[in-house]
């Protein structure tokens, strides 16, 4: 399972960046494969691992603010692993082949 999520505190006293950095620390210490980008962090793992991590992230942020905003997108394909990097590698391979986007494959 892949889960791309964005989470931020709303209305707290602390810097949003500091709280988000704490979430990224949680993700990285989870042992699950992950990538952090400008708008989302993506994690890969079994559903129970991913949902447990999302819950820990939610609980962390709610300790720092009275309200939490969280967006989650999930791609669940049982039996597949390594999707975190494989999807990007397939796109990069297609780009390297320099195909015309309008031509037939």
Question: How is this structure best summarized?
Answer:
This protein has one domain (2-96): Alpha-Beta Plaits (2-Layer Sandwich), CATH 3.30.70. 42% of the residues lie in helices and 24% in strands.
Architecture blueprint of SSEs:
Blueprint: E1 2-10, H1 16-29, E2 34-36, E3 41-44, H2 47-62, E4 67-75, H3 83-96
Antiparallel strand pairs: 1-3, 1-4, 2-3
Give the helix/strand class.
alpha+beta
Q: Count of DSSP helices?
A: 3
Strand content: 15-25%
Output the strand order for the largest sheet: 2-3-1-4
The first-level CATH class name? Alpha Beta
Q: Which spans have pLDDT < 50 for at least 5 consecutive residues? A: none
Q: How is the main sheet built?
A: 4 strands, antiparallel
Return the CATH topology: Alpha-Beta Plaits
The radius of gyration computed from the alpha-carbon positions, rounded to a whole number of angstroms, is 17 Å
Give the strand tally: 4
Q: What is the global morphology?
A: elongated
Number of domains: 1
The level of helicity is: 40-55%
| Terminal Cα span | 29 Å
The H/E string reads EHEEHEH
How does CATH name the architecture?
2-Layer Sandwich
Q: Average pLDDT across residues?
A: 93
Tell me what the structure shows.
There is one protein chain. The protein has a four-stranded antiparallel β-sheet with strand order 2-3-1-4. It is elongated and about 55 Å long. The chain has a single domain, classed as Alpha-Beta Plaits (2-Layer Sandwich). 14% of the residues are buried. It is built from three helices and four strands; from the N terminus they run βαββαβα. With 105 residues, the protein is of the alpha+beta class. The model has no long low-confidence stretch (mean pLDDT 93).
